[in-house]
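#onboarding

Welcome to the new folks! Below is a worked example of what a typical request in this channel looks like: someone posts a single protein sequence, and someone else replies with the predicted structure as tokens. Don't worry about understanding the tokens yet, we'll cover that in week two.

Example request:
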Amino acid sequence: MHRFSFYLEGRPAPRLSFPLNKKYGSPAILVFFVLFATLALGQTKMSATESEALKAKVKSLANNTRTITSDFTQYKHLDFLSNDIESSGKLAFRAPDQVKWQYVKPYAYSIVFKNQTLYIDDEGNKSNIDVSGNKLFERLNHLIAASISGDMFDAEQFDMSFFNDSGKSLVHFMPKDPQFSEFISAFHITFNELGEVERVKMIEPSGDFTLIVFSNRKTNQPLSDAHFAQ
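Example response:
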């Protein structure tokens, strides 16, 4: 079985260590609790009225969006690395589920999902994977495409929690399917005031995660088949 993960390989970096102060504990722990308290103040649970309004806004926008292009920066967090692996590139999306991730830094690398096939171009080394017989992979592809537009409000598939977060809207999607949860334990999606997706965080059961931050988003501009060619 092919396991899909958004990250490029990187060299392990040495961990940072702090001396333990017996009276106050590790400075890193103190900083963590101060930071956590600060972040918690900016995040409050939405009321039922607010969450329903957000769902309606996002669904309306998604239903009227045929294409999306955007720059993105991706951060892959692995517990055994001191620093996240950072990469960047351009996204192209065409409804209902054609997606191209064009990485430009630090390496030239592209991934295209279309017609139940995964196309990979690794600096000129091209390959493809037929995922039509892999229902789990197909579902993951569908959910990744849905996360780009933000329309993942399916109570049969997810438990959901809604938050106001420093002027943004944050939704936690927890898959109900135990088999799917073996790959992704949660999606955290941040929306701006228009209902557009600004950030997608995919969390693995191990606690490792992939965070994708979008910028320079453009919608409903013509995208030809050439945009999704390998």
